[in-house]
Every structure is written in C-alpha cells, then in structure tokens.
Amino acid sequence: MKMTSVRQTVFRGAILFVFGVFFSLVLNLLQVYREQIEDGQQPGDFDHYHSSWWVLPACGMTAVFVGLLYPFLDQRLDEPLKYRGEWSNVMRCVAVFVGINHASAKLEFSNNLHMSLTLAAMCIGLWWLFDRSKSGFVLGVGTAVLATILTQFLVYQGIYKYSKADFMFVRSWLPSIFFSGGVTIGNIGRQLAMYDSKDKKD
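and the corresponding structure tokens:
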C-alpha cells in the first residue's frame, strides 16, 4: 500500500513538473513579446531570449511542491472545496491562466500601475471562479510573495536578468502572475490527488 502511494505521488509530481515547465515557457515567450512591442520591434522573433539553463527545471520543481502542498493542506484542514472531480473545470482554469498572461502581452495599458491592478483583479477573479477556498487564497498569496522575493534576490545577485524592471528589480505585474499560477497548479494537484483517492477506493 505504501509503495503504491509513493508511486502515485511520484506520478503526480511528474505531471506537475511538466505543467510547471510548460507554464514557464509560456510566460517567457509572452514576456519577450511584450518587450518587443514596447521597443517598437516586430513581435515573433524570440532568438535573442536566452534563459539560464536552470529556470525551466526550477519552475518545474516549484510546480511539484505547490501542486502537492495544496491537497496536503486540504486534507489537514478538512476544508470543503467548491469543485470536486471535475477535470473540465481544471482545464478551464488553465485556459484562463494562459489567457490572463496572453492579455498582459497583447492589451495596451496606459501605465504599469494600470496593468498591475487589472491583472490583480483578473487573478482574484480566477481564484473566485475556480477555487474560492481560504487555503487556496492564502497559498496563492504566499506563493506570489515568496516567488517575487526570490526573483528579486536572483536579479539583485546577477543570477537572473529582468529587463525593463519597474518594481525594484522585476516587473510590477509579476506577483499577480505568480498568484494565478499557484492557484492553477494547486487545482491541478488537487485533481490528481482526487484521482488517486478514487483509485484507492476502487
């Protein structure tokens, strides 16, 4: 039984890792797209963008941690969730998350503050539509704060570079993206955990 549980956890972790890498790629491409638009360049040429080799696996491992933490805390807190056993809902959440990031690159905003507030409202809307749990909100905020601080530290140390920074060393909209990403990965992790629970019952 314990070996089965370990296998299921490893399997869930592998899926979450893939999602984390995928989201990282999407965010990186959209970041470059917005920078090209702001510089008046023709969007679509991403040859100049070179991430450090560790960024993708780091995002994947972060997704594993967050995705496993959400269902773990749900079990400990015994908090009732609004959505249970709905993969379609999880996929809609993923689509909205990608849509929010796409909108941040495509839409024109009068200034960075306007963009940051708009994205923050969208991200809270994502949480309201697809989560609504107190633990989900707190974990989303915690993910946003810790990830932003870590990114600030990496940029300050010269390990990672964020061009056109307007919030200390990073972009002001980054916490909103981390928040919505945490909620999205958390929902995927919850759904995978529910699938494992159904297998145990069967």
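(Above: one complete record from the training split.) Residues 2-201 form one domain.
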